[in-house]
Amino acid sequence: MRASLIQLAVSDAEPAAERRARAAALVRAQDGADLVVLPELWPVGGFAYDAWSDGAEPLDGPTAETMSAAARAVGCWLHAGSIVERDPDGPIYNTSLLFAPDGELVRTYRKIHRFGFDTGEAVVMGAGQEIVTADAGFATLGLATCYDLRFPELFRALLDADAELLVIPAAWPARRAEHWNLLSRARAVEEQAYVLACNTAGTHGGVEQAGRSLVVDPWGRVLAEAGPDEQVLTVEFDPAEVAKCRAEFPVHRDRLLGIPAPVQR
Ligand SMILES: NC(=O)CCC(=O)C(=O)O
Hints:
265 residues; 14 strands; 25% strand; C-N_Hydrolase; C-N_Hydrolase_sf; Acyltransferase
């Protein structure tokens, strides 16, 4: 299968509508791709907190509309990254959108672990409560977003829900680029799954983004890695490698589902 990760540059200077049009053109250029992925909160900027309220949109808002049409035009699965979702009955959420090749919005994933400690997402956004997977035909996709990468228990839950391709849009800063690379590889090895980790480039909200999107195979090998700037990372791989890896090195069989209590000394 072929996947394209669109590592979009996100700056405060570019209006959301222009970036949306640019992102749609990039998606539409991915002819022949089975899966296209965009980064986290690219319409507004993952660190541009001041823009979130005005940039919030419903699940049938301008980003969903544009991306549905782009998925349909290419005939691919499109993980359109995430938007600031305006829920009329609740807080705002950091919500990922997954479109099927006919343009239908088939899954949404509200980010479970909110980044920022006492600021940003952690303060103003609601936390997702649901593990989300989708059978895309070529593989089962497991959805997670950026800071979620630091929480292995979420990925274990995705494994238990049969995920084979872990799709992770992000707005990950340059100053922690090594964590991004290491954790993406760790999650691939740990779950014996492909990791498709799509970051933003550029600088917004005063935070320089790392770029360095990557695709890792179930053995932990980096199949492709982007540089720091806007780039489309295209990679071909065989999803059947997940089952092969799990059969050849059946480490999950040795999981202790009830971890013994610590010994009191
Ligand atoms: N947008 C994010 O979730 C940023 C996460 C991050 O910077 C980190 O985990 O480090």
